């Protein structure tokens, strides 16, 4: 049997070693959690910038659509004015013979050509404008979808960081309790004069607590995995 003084020293060393190991576990877990939190903050910044860029692009496309439509309307007005000018010249050239069949046919051709050019200009402008409007809506929808996805990713990082801190704390506590319990089981009875049967009972309760803690930790991980799978499910619209 070891001397009480020697046992006390060994008990102190065992507890101190467990404390150092537990501290390292806690620091490592917190460092990983801090890194995840930092990444989440960076994602938030990029998310905001991308959303702004998407809104700005959509605004530019909408403005381009309005400009395109206005330009086509001006072009149609030019065709209409040109048609009216040609008709006026045709009437002046015909003079008193404006009712002649050939003159009427000429004027009808001018009218038809002018209206056709006017319609083509308006249709082309409407078509190009509609395409730009669609691009604007698509750009905005894409920016908003990316914003939602990035927000979810950042939130999951923060959740995992929080979970990591809890896990590190649980592991550190387990390391400390296990090491201290082992040291106490070897040297505590001699230091404090506790009967061996009482020490063995304490060790049994400690092991039971460790088993319960491990089971609780595994259940926590299982629920976290279920939560991640649930959040990754496809979204159905309509």
TrEMBL record:
Top-level taxon in the UniProt lineage: Bacteria
Identification of the protein by name: Uncharacterized protein
User: Which species does this protein come from?
Assistant: Methylocystis echinoides
